[in-house]
Request: fold
Amino acid sequence: MPLLTRRVEVACAIGLALGGCGGRSPSNATSPSTLETSAPTTAPEKRERIYRFDTDKAGRLPAGLSFLQPPPGSGFWKIEAVPIAQSVPNALAWNPQGNGEGRALALDLPGPSFHLSVQVRAGSGDAAQTQAGLLFGYQDSANHWGAVLDFAAARSLLYRVENGVRTNVAEAVFHPAGEGGAPWHHLEVDCRAGAVQCRVNGSSSTSAQETRAPEGRAGLVVCGGGALFDDLTITPR
Reply:
């Protein structure tokens, strides 16, 4: 498969550097065959993908996702045993070591119309610096979309990165789904004919209308502090 080889670093709206190429991760969490420096293109895949992470081995990377190499010293992905995971016993964790962004992508393109959902909560590190959620329409590091939760501000953000420039398209307040200091939140993105809508914990939060659908790969994104993800679902329409 051809590779998109552009190496571009873009600035996150909260002042954090987005992930670039050439980093390394601890040997207990990654191996060279599971890391990408860019995203391969594939034909759209019309079947639903569900990633529960419960049959994956703790301390390793899960099957079925690829991980773009973060900047050196920014953090690493791994499966963690989490007793309070939405589906026990595991969740996928981003462990921060600096101000970098982690990106995990499904291997297939969902097509121009799709539904994404994930359970997400703040993890280790400074929650005041954390934005975490869904990545979609991913062409390369300079061209993609994201729908993230800003945990400190209790706001959901829908943004677009085009030619390396991030624009926040819409934002809204979201309400906790449960009790405690770091509850799980159910984040959804629905895209049909260029109309993008986000929901948090079952309530509509942000939306945007595009002249063209944000086509590309889909997955997870986090910057700032740590985050836990569970039950990622990618459903082509």
User: Anything to note?
Assistant: The first strand starts at residue 35 and ends at 36. Residues 135 and 146 are 5 Å apart (CA to CA).
